[in-house]
Automatic annotation (TrEMBL):
The keyword Transferase does not apply. GO terms for biological process: cell adhesion; Rho protein signal transduction. GO terms for cellular component: cytoplasm. InterPro entries: Alpha-catenin/vinculin-like_sf, Alpha_catenin, CTNNAL1, Vinculin/catenin. Residues 1-20 are annotated as: Disordered. It comes from Ardeotis kori. This is Alpha-catulin. It is found in: Cytoplasm. Residues 7-18 have a biased composition (Low complexity). The lineage of its organism: Eukaryota, Metazoa, Chordata, Craniata, Vertebrata. Signal peptide: none annotated. Keywords: Cytoplasm. GO terms for molecular function: actin filament binding; cadherin binding.
Length: 762
């Protein structure tokens, strides 16, 4: 396994400016891009200034200010880069070279923009941006390339931290696997818990920072496995220690350790962008993605009759129809759906034959009649594929709806718990067979849903769900067998409860996943999904009593329903406001969307739904929400530099209000409480304070949108927002994994560069 990613990263730029960094560099994280965007903006502003014969003093001073700002920022940035190089000797040589290049390029830009004091900037005695534009472009290209290298090298340090954290977790897991005394297990598990929390925070930040949505979804799936397996590892290990000669207890424990190792390995594969033995990841093809690609090719014939062969098109259809066999061969597909899918498959072949016939004629003789016939053939082929897509979607989702409804009473799990406590081995064997049947049904459901999920992240979620049912089923069976063999064992009973809860939780998640798949199919926005970090460190006492997952009961849900509904309405308002922004990649919008997403998950909690299962989950989410609000306040302060007149103090006042409300929420979320009544009061306070923040956010977003339009609409010249070299500085100042992990993280540079505002000479 490779333990370090490709060291390079890259940036692209608009052709109009002539800018371009190293084409071999690839940026994989948000924060690296976000750090570069303002720098690109400033440089592009310089390069794209209008060459007019008359230049005012105001224009000359503005050009000089931008050049000096770039040089100063680069100087501070390089100082931090050199400090990082000194702390990390394996990167020192590469980092030092990149820092020298960046400093030299920054100084060159400053010299070429030193024009404010010159009456005739184009005079022969002084080379400037007006006389040597090629020099500026060259210096800018070198600067972007070298700064990107510094950032990506620094990003390697974050990756190294994740790998080091994983290695610590693996080493402690090995110790846990070998312990033979309960006392030794208690001590090591306490250490293991803290290491898992550190790993969770590092990988959680990295997950949010990834550009690739597919990798993001895979990371979320792996982290979900680790979250659930941490509690499983505790109870399975305790059961094995209590019953050392029990074979089913050992099988149960070994299964948990194996699954955790696989999840840890996958996290490192994603982080380092590598796979064992250089294997390529073979992503399974879904019917949806196959139909989408096939239709694109067919519709492409309108523009170009020669860009692909008829064999290619036929092969693509064959692959799609092969995948429909997953439905027609399934024992769980209804007779009606099976017949419709077979009929549509046959019709698709006929439509393609007709299309190919007209297509070949049109290649030889491009008459008006033939082109009209081709258009009809294209429409009929695409319509047939749409009907096939609709039919497989109906087959998969109706099966999922029926199965989830049928198994939601958890009768088999309840029976296993009862017969296990009774020590009835014969009854346990009977119900384990029923659970195996249920598992096969749910695994088949996941496979069919994957074909119609509509997006790659949802496909990955389906695959994760399939794996969860596939693995958890046998683990429940081994846990039930252990309890039946030791019916008076409290720890064996607790262990079975933990595995059953994981099964129930996955069934609940499937209901949410099904809603998302339907939303994508119908063109609606899917439900908001927020990743959950693993729980924060808990105090493990000598008896290793697990923290009980506290949920709201029906009465408490009723009390808090009104507040939850208000929160839901506010998230809709915030979403409406963010959709009004032309630049969806704007930092203010990004933070606003993130906060809305988290608030929505908190609303779902008040209804007993969603990914936040316990009060502890809610409190942790409230902390993350408050942190995101503080980041938004920082972004507002940065934005205020572009605002003039009475608007600026108004914006800063609102930012201070936001900071104050977020601090209040953070204090409430972190406050320690005991007892059911006190816990509910804390839940109520967290939801209330979150609502207050969202209310303010609803006022802030339209204000910022108006001020941004006002600022960009003015004709005055203003340097671009300051390049935030402080992102890099954080890497050397931060001492905690959480702080370090926040340092680097994506937007499309191309979008930013092509939308750059040009310098107007006035």
């Amino acid at each position: 396994m490779a333990t370090s990613p490709c060291s390079s990263s890259g940036v692209s730029s608009s052709s109009s400016s002539g800018l371009g960094a190293d084409a071999g560099l690839e940026i994989r994280t948000r924060s690296v891009e976000q750090t570069l965007v303002p720098l690109v903006s400033q440089i592009t502003t310089l390069i794209n200034h209008k060459d007019k014969p008359k230049r005012s003093d105001k224009t000359l001073q503005a050009i000089q200010r931008v050049g000096q700002a770039v040089n100063l920022a680069v100087g501070r940035f390089v100082t931090v880069g050199e400090a990082i190089a000194n702390e990390n000797h394996e990167l020192k040589e590469e980092m030092s070279v990149a820092c020298i290049e960046a400093r030299r390029a920054g100084e060159t830009i400053a010299q070429l923009t030193d024009v404010a004091s010159l009456d005739h900037p184009e005079s022969d005695s002084h080379i400037t941006i007006f006389t040597d534009k090629t020099g500026v472009v060259k210096a800018a290209r070198l600067l972007l390339s070298s700064v990107t290298k510094v950032l990506v090298l620094a990003d390697r340090i974050v990756i190294k931290q994740i790998i080091t954290s994983r290695n610590k977790v693996l080493a402690t897991m090995e110790q846990l696997e070998k312990v033979s005394s309960f006392q030794e297990f208690v001590q090591i598990f306490s250490q293991f818990g803290n290491e898992m929390v550190e790993f969770a925070h590092l990988t959680g930040d990295r997950q949010n920072d990834l550009k690739d949505e597919k990798k993001k979804a895979r990371m979320a799936a792996s982290r979900a496995v680790l979250e659930k397996c941490t509690m499983m590892l505790l109870t399975a290990s305790k059961t094995c220690l209590r019953h050392p000669d029990c074979e089913s207890a050992r099988i149960n424990k070994d299964g948990v350790f194996h699954r955790m190792r696989l999840a840890l390995e996958q996290v490192i594969e994603i982080v380092t962008d590598s796979r064992p033995n250089g294997e390529n990841e073979m992503a399974p093809i879904s019917i949806y993605s196959g139909i989408k690609e096939f239709k694109n090719k067919v519709e492409g014939l309108r523009e170009n009759l020669y860009f692909l062969s008829k064999e290619n098109l036929s092969t693509m259809l064959e692959v799609i129809l092969e995948h429909t066999e997953d439905f027609t061969d399934s024992a769980y597909t209804s007779h009606e759906h099976r017949e419709h899918i077979l009929e549509l498959s046959k019709q698709a072949k006929m439509e393609l034959e007709q299309l190919v016939s007209v297509w070949m004629q049109a290649q030889n003789q491009k008459t008006k009649d033939l082109m009209e016939d081709l258009e009809v053939a294209i429409l009929k082929t695409c319509q047939c594929m749409n009907e096939l897509k609709r039919e497989v979607h109906s087959a998969a989702t109706s099966l999922a709806t029926d199965l989830l409804k049928y198994h939601m009473d958890h009768m088999v799990l309840k029976a296993l718990k009862i017969t296990g406590v009774e020590g009835n081995l014969e009854a346990v064997a009977e119900y384990t067979c029923k659970l195996s049947e249920q598992k096969e049904q749910l695994v088949e459901m996941c496979r069919l849903l994957r074909h119609v999920s509509g997006t790659e992240p949802l496909e990955i979620t389906c695959i994760h769900a399939e794996d969860t049912f596939q693995v958890t089923g046998p683990q429940i069976i081994s846990a039930a067998e252990t309890l039946a063999l030791h019916p008076s064992s409290k720890i064996a009973k607790e262990n079975l409860e933990v595995f059953c809860e994981a099964w129930e939780s996955q069934l609940s998640d499937m209901s949410m996943l099904l809603r998302e798949i339907n939303d994508v199919f119908e063109g609606r926005r899917g439900e908001k999904r927020v990743y959950l970090s693993l729980p924060r460190p808990g105090k493990h006492n000598a008896n290793l009593k697990a923290l009980k997952a506290v949920k709201l009961d029906t009465e408490e849900q009723a009390k808090i329903a009104k507040l939850g509904l208000e929160l839901h309405l506010l998230t809709s308002d915030v979403d409406s406001e963010t959709e009004k922004w032309e630049d969806q990649e704007n930092e203010i919008v990004q933070h606003g969307q993130g906060m809305s997403s988290m608030a929505y998950s908190m609303y779902l909690f008040t209804r007993g739904e969603g990914l936040l299962k316990t009060t502890q989950d809610l409190f942790h989410q409230a902390e993350i929400f408050a942190t995101e609000g503080t980041k938004l306040a920082s972004a507002l302060h940065a934005f205020s530099d572009q605002v003039h007149g009475d608007d600026k103090p108004l914006l800063l006042l609102e930012a201070e209000k936001l900071i104050s409300l977020c601090k209040q929420l953070q204090i409430t979320a972190k406050a320690s409480v005991q007892g059911k009544s006190a816990t509910f009061t804390k839940v109520d306070a967290c939801i209330l304070k979150t609502r207050n923040v969202m209310t303010l956010l609803c006022q802030l977003l339209p204000l910022c949108c108006k001020l941004l339009r006002k600022a960009t609409g003015n004709g005055y010249l203003k340097p671009a927002p300051p390049w935030r070299e402080d992102r890099l500085r954080t890497a050397t100042n931060a001492h905690t994994p959480e702080r370090r992990a926040e340092t680097f993280g994506i937007k499309s540079l191309e979008n930013h560069v092509t939308n750059m505002t040009f310098l107007e000479s006035k």
